[in-house]
Structure formats: C-alpha cells, structure tokens
Amino acid sequence: MSLYDTVRDLPLHIDGYYLEPLEREVARGFTLHRTVVVLHGKGEEGRGEEVDYDSRTQETFQADEGKLPLTGEHTLDSFSLLQAGQTEYRRWGFESAALDLALRQAGLSLGEAVGREPQPLRFVVSTRTANVPGWLELYPDLHFKLDPDREWTNDVIATLRNVETIDFKGIYRYAFGNPPDAELYARVAAAFPDAWIEDPALTGETMSALEPHRDRITWDAAIHEWSDVEALPFRPKCLNCKPSRFGSVRRLFDFYDACAREGIALYGGGQFELGPGRDQIQLLASLFHADAPNDVAPGGFNAAAPVGGLPEPPLEIERTAGFRR
C-alpha cells in the first residue's frame, strides 16, 4: 500500500471555512503576511497555512474569504481534486487543513493513520552568520544551516562551528538568489567537509569546483514532486523536503515513497511558517526523517538577535489527533 493510500479515503465533512490573517515583522522594515485556512465541520476545525511571500497575494486571498464552494461530503482525495487549479502554496493551505480536519473527525493522529510513531526531532537553526556566536553562547550544542556569500572570508569561516548545511541559494532568482561562484563554493565546501551543500548553481566551473564533494550536493528550491528529482543532473544522496512546495498531500506522500524506494535521505525545511504550518512541518519531520538536520526550528529561533529560554533539540513530539503537534 502506498503512503497516500493510508489517508486518501478518509471521510471529510465541511460545513464551511474562514481565513485568519497573520503578520509578523521579521526584519527591520519587512513584515511577513500569511493566512491561516480554517475548515470546520462536525464540531471540529482543521487548520492549514498559506505561505506565499507576496503580501498582495495574501490580501487578495483574504478579501475573497468564503467564496469557494467547499461545503459538503468529501474524501480527502476528492477534496484534493477540487484544489487542482490553485497555486502550490494555496493548495497546501487548503489540503493541510483538510487533512487536519479529516483526521480529527476520525479521531486519528497522522502517525496512527500512516502507521508511524513520531520520534524526537532534531533541528538546526537557519540564521544570519553574524548571529552564530551569540546563539552558541546561549546554546552550545546548537547546530546551523547557513547561507555563504562573498563576505565569508577565511577569518569569518574560522569563527563558525556546528554547521550542518551550507545553502548557496543558486537555484533561487531575484532577491533570494546568489550567482554561481566557483571559488566560494570550493573554499566553503572544503572548510565544512561534513556539511550538506544545498542548491549550488551548476556551471562548468562550479561543477569542477564541487566534483570532490558531489556526494554532499543536495537540492531544495527545484523540488516540487518526484519528477523534479528525476530531472536533476545526477541522483542525489539527500534532499531538502519543504512540504508546502508540493501543494498536494498526494504529491508529498508519493515523494516520500519514492525517496524511500531509491534510498534518498531527507531533511525538512520550512517557509518561515508563522502559524499551524510550523507544527505541521515539525510533525512530518518527526515521522519521516527525525534524526536529520531539519530546518524546522521553533519560531523563537527566527528572532533578529539570539534570545534565551527556547526549547533545545531534540523536540519531543506528542501523538495527538489531527495533523498538528
């Protein structure tokens, strides 16, 4: 039985839905806007999070609250088909809420439905390089996912430790992306011989620079379904799995099945979730790749400067009804 077959026929009764806006200032002058999708029926609520980064997209979505014809009797699979025309982030907001509601109406946790127990969750912290010493002063055993750039001189590199993933952001475009840089790639990869090398921009020069480290190259931004893995220039040993990129529960679960079949390891990633989406990516990571460098740290680690009193890894994930921690 496929993983998706364990949940596809879950009954789902929807009386209606509403939307809850979320916002948080995550950097000086930059406020992140998100939308919580709440489906309700039979005295239960299911929640998901729309994680599009464009505030105008979120405002338009919120202005159309209640206009979609979602009420009635469904299965998780038939509800999924209704979302096929949505963007991936929008579809994930609705489908994750639907999975949460269907499980709650059935009195099941996600782990019970798929036949897995949540395990203690290891996580890393994605942060600005300048913040690493401050975080380590407060949490000496904390590990990191960092974004190298040209400011990573050898002196800067010498101050860093516990780095598990280096993200070159070579697949992203515009403000989020970085150009290919063979010298930087080679220098940083050699400095952190045990770290995963995420999303390098592959050119003739960068391929040559990274050839000694090929087994450590992993991908994130390009991965939205299993066919994206088949299109990569070579089969990776590990991948970053961001559930919201997949849009549908089926595509995500089919991806889990394919990676298990092909022996590809996974670690989890997020999209700066502000609401229930963060609990959901932590739960998925605890079920499918708990002992990996999961970039799913509790929200407090997104603070602009290091703060004390936050939970340290591993996180204990309780088994509760629904698609939430």
What does this structure look like?
The chain is 32% helix and 19% strand. The strands form four sheets. The chain has a five-stranded parallel β-sheet, with no helix packed on it. It has two domains: 4-109, Enolase-like, domain 1 (2-Layer Sandwich), CATH 3.30.390.10; 125-302, TIM Barrel (Alpha-Beta Barrel), CATH 3.20.20.120. The protein has helices spanning 55-63, 76-82, 88-106, 110-114, 132-138, 154-158, 182-191, 204-210, 226-230, 243-246, 249-262, 276-288; strands spanning 11-14, 16-27, 30-41, 44-50, 72-75, 125-126, 144-146, 163-167, 196-198, 217-218, 238-241, 265-268. It is built from twelve helices and twelve strands. Strand 6 (125-126), helix 5 (132-138) and strand 7 form a beta-alpha-beta unit. It is α/β, with parallel strands linked by helices. The radius of gyration is 20 Å and the shape is globular. The longest helix is centred in the first third of the chain and has 19 residues, at 88-106. The model has no long low-confidence stretch (mean pLDDT 95).
